[in-house]
């Protein structure tokens, strides 16, 4: 099983991953960007905005993803792998580029490896506004609410276009209710 937790910044991914970690003791928990040794260097470069070129920045994320899929996801395909983000974020956040073009590049980077289960925590505009006001924002989050809502739409479109087995969950539900819905989805209910 290759399970991915998706959602824009502040959707509640880390909160749910911490709960999953308590329940899935045998699973491998990983993340993008930064799930491998090379990936953690690429993550620093990408998130600090070290590349001047937008295209170079997009390729940093793709390089991270290619290494991560090969070294973590495929090498552990007999196990349960649970990842904080995936190609779904990769395609969606690269919003300067056409969706279909990003799908093609990401399928190349992942050698066509798709998540078996994608959970998308979906925020309403008002809840996103509230959550962003509660924290110190990094460079990507500072791009604003409309920017992030557009990314969220691209995430949904990507999941549907790729036909990935998925569950969209309202991120403003209680932490316990979201946890329950994730559990049901993973148990095939
Ligand atoms: N279901 C929820 N309802 C209300 N607040 C939540 C919920 N889940 C998480 N939060 C809060 O929202 C903020 C962002 O959550 P976090 O798990 O860090 O999101 P992400 O990892 O997606 O950026 C945190 O302050 C967290 O405590
Ligand atoms: C995976 C991926 C993430 N991102 C963005 C989303 C996030 O804003 C940021 C890092 O993700 P994340 O590790 O979730 O950030 P944090 O630790 O602050 O919660 O990178 C891209 O722009 N492209 C990508 O391919």
TrEMBL record:
Transmembrane annotation, as ranges: none
Gene3D superfamilies: P-loop containing nucleotide triphosphate hydrolases
InterPro entries, A to Z: P-loop_NTPase (IPR027417), Thymidylate_kin-like_dom (IPR039430), Thymidylate_kinase (IPR018094)
One GO MF term attached to the UniProt entry: dTMP kinase activity
The keyword Nucleotide-binding belongs to this UniProt entry's keyword annotation: yes
Residues that hold ATP according to the record: 7-14
Reactions accelerated catalytically: dTMP + ATP = dTDP + ADP
Source organism, top-level taxon: Bacteria
Keyword line: ATP-binding, Kinase, Nucleotide biosynthesis, Nucleotide-binding, Transferase
Keyword presence, Kinase: yes
Domain Thymidylate kinase-like: 5-182
This enzyme's EC code(s): 2.7.4.9
UniProt cross-references to HAMAP family, sorted A to Z: Thymidylate_kinase
Function of the protein: Phosphorylation of dTMP to form dTDP in both de novo and salvage pathways of dTTP synthesis.
Record-stated family: Belongs to the thymidylate kinase family.
Protein name, as recorded: Thymidylate kinase
Species per Swiss-Prot/TrEMBL record: Arcobacter roscoffensis
Classification lineage: Bacteria, Pseudomonadati, Campylobacterota, Epsilonproteobacteria, Campylobacterales
Gene symbol of the encoding locus: tmk
